[in-house]
Amino acid sequence: RFQDYRGFSGGGISSMLVDRDGNLWTAFNNNPATCFGRDGQIRRQLEGQSFVSCMFMAADGKVWAGLYNGGIASLDTRTGTLGPLEQHDRNSLVQCMVQDQKGNIYYTTRGSGFSMYNPVTGEYRHWSKTSDSASGAKLDNDWINSMAVDEGGLLWLGHNSGISCYDTEAGEFRDVPSELNASGTSCSLLICDNNGRVWAGT
Length: 202
Hints:
mainly beta, 4-stranded antiparallel sheet
């Protein structure tokens, strides 16, 4: 059944996620992330003053939260608390997150490229349009709107100038067809299907 939550004064919604218990976590622009149970009632709210800009569930079921004031942290969905904050990207709003086959978490930082964090080793890297690549290819725009990882380990990045591609295995950018970065083309959404195709919304 449909239930109307317009009366809930949480502000605009930036992200939604269903956890393994079937609860709906909703991130608001100006209020703490809130957990709604299957019955539609509020179960818990994120403690503290860290507003969540996006959420992502890793392959192991752990939920990660990207924050408006920068950094990512694990989110304990049972208690509504954040784990230690990874402050590599302080003051850079985290816009979206994906995970590759090795367990690395890639996330975009608004207007400043994208980063990688390995939760096991603590390794961190950051890329922007000024980053060098042995292939000669590069990130064409630092304003990244969406990311997707295909079955071959290629990280596709949709940005305000089109699409770029990063090979997570080789550790370098790949060339993409020039028509994917035509003048005035902005990619707002990317998704990989089960047939190995990458779909882009412009």
